């Protein structure tokens, strides 16, 4: 892989991008990240991602070392250094090289890299396993993924693709995506205890005037009674859910509402590319 | 700092010990560690620490790349490379360089390093802030410390040293130590939802035949009514607690039971050093 990376002001090959082991992301999992797609050289919803990245730094008490303009510039340079049709671009801000192994350093480490990327086949859909869990700081894209990774062997044994997190009977999200249900042409998604997904935001937006939308508390039982279920993320866009635990969702996949939203979302994404290009 | 480190079979200066950013500890906080003290060249309770480290690897589905004998050997070499009166020795096992950024690699990364260390002054004691929280996988020394690090500014504003975690009205542990209370000459500590501390284990052991001991569920309210409270960890041994939130514990610090246990524990540690030396 010929991926190029950015580390604290320098551009270098990803394989040579190394951090000392006293970095707090490594010692204590302390840091944040964001991930965006780049289609034919255009970063998709880049301002949304940078808004979220900067906000996450504030919430976690990390000083963002570069201005918005510098972040935009480094993204542009990484895109130039990695000439591929479709890129995934990851940015990470860590607690830096900690003097005592616990307290964040004055100077965080800022990294980013882009690597060739392909979408999973949305026609296949995904299966989910319900899992009683909530992330510790759900509103922030932190580096903390212990339980879902620890549980991967069980997921694999059950030939399941991902999790459906629930807590106190209410669903929240999947391990790296938001969850939507469709019932009687109404599109609903959890309001709280979730990462504010960029794809989620734009799906809610394109629903306006076409489908009724509810951001609210959703019972786990409602998911099993839904007409359609889909998950959204920057690396999957809108992915239909085929099955949750033993429950098979009504066919076809994607269902009619999901299909309509996929089309509207692609249009939105294309408009956004044009806007960036202007 | 002239600390030396071990990384996957090689010994090198700590500052040159770097991992690629695709390591799963860095990307997703996925890994385990352990920490032991080395006094005048003797690693303290080394078998207890290696038992726990190997057990943690199993629980997290990580393949320990070296045998017990190799781990003992690398500890011995690190001690030779770092000739100091008192060392802290940290071992870390990570999810390795992940191909997809989420799934642990076949080959974890194993690191260890030793650095000069000093005990905090037990005569000063510490203050704790009660904090409603439990670690996600409490029985394992994982790399996951988001909430306690995020809250450090609040801890500092309140001029407090550490947390007292509680959940559903029951206490568990502090951020990096176990918690004991003493009431009417009975020594009690939480039974579940905690890291099985090595110092905790030996404190419970030296109590035998001298003080009544209870490993049980402990209400937060009991801590405020205790005669003495102390925390235990490999880098603090037995540290008296002076204050929890606004509540000042009865003087003196350390109290008589804590003081007796400190003496018994030092004796135990010394015996253990002799045993290693034999």
UniProtKB/TrEMBL annotation, chains A, B:
EC number: 2.6.1.42
Top EC class, one word: transferase
Keywords: Aminotransferase, Transferase
Reactions catalysed, as given in the entry: L-isoleucine + 2-oxoglutarate = (S)-3-methyl-2-oxopentanoate + L-glutamate; L-leucine + 2-oxoglutarate = 4-methyl-2-oxopentanoate + L-glutamate; L-valine + 2-oxoglutarate = 3-methyl-2-oxobutanoate + L-glutamate
Molecular functions per Gene Ontology: branched-chain-amino-acid transaminase activity
Listed transmembrane segments: none
Highest taxon of source: Bacteria
Statement: the UniProt record of this protein carries the keyword Transferase: yes
GO biological process, alphabetically ordered: carboxylic acid biosynthetic process
Pathway stated in the Swiss-Prot or TrEMBL entry: Amino-acid biosynthesis; L-leucine biosynthesis; L-leucine from 3-methyl-2-oxobutanoate: step 4/4; Amino-acid biosynthesis; L-valine biosynthesis; L-valine from pyruvate: step 4/4; Amino-acid biosynthesis; L-isoleucine biosynthesis; L-isoleucine from 2-oxobutanoate: step 4/4
InterPro entries to which the protein is assigned, alphabetical: Aminotrans_IV, Aminotransferase-like, BCAT-like_C, BCAT-like_N, Class-IV_PLP-Dep_Aminotrnsfr
Annotated family: Belongs to the class-IV pyridoxal-phosphate-dependent aminotransferase family.
Protein name: branched-chain-amino-acid transaminase
Organism the protein comes from: Spirosoma pollinicola
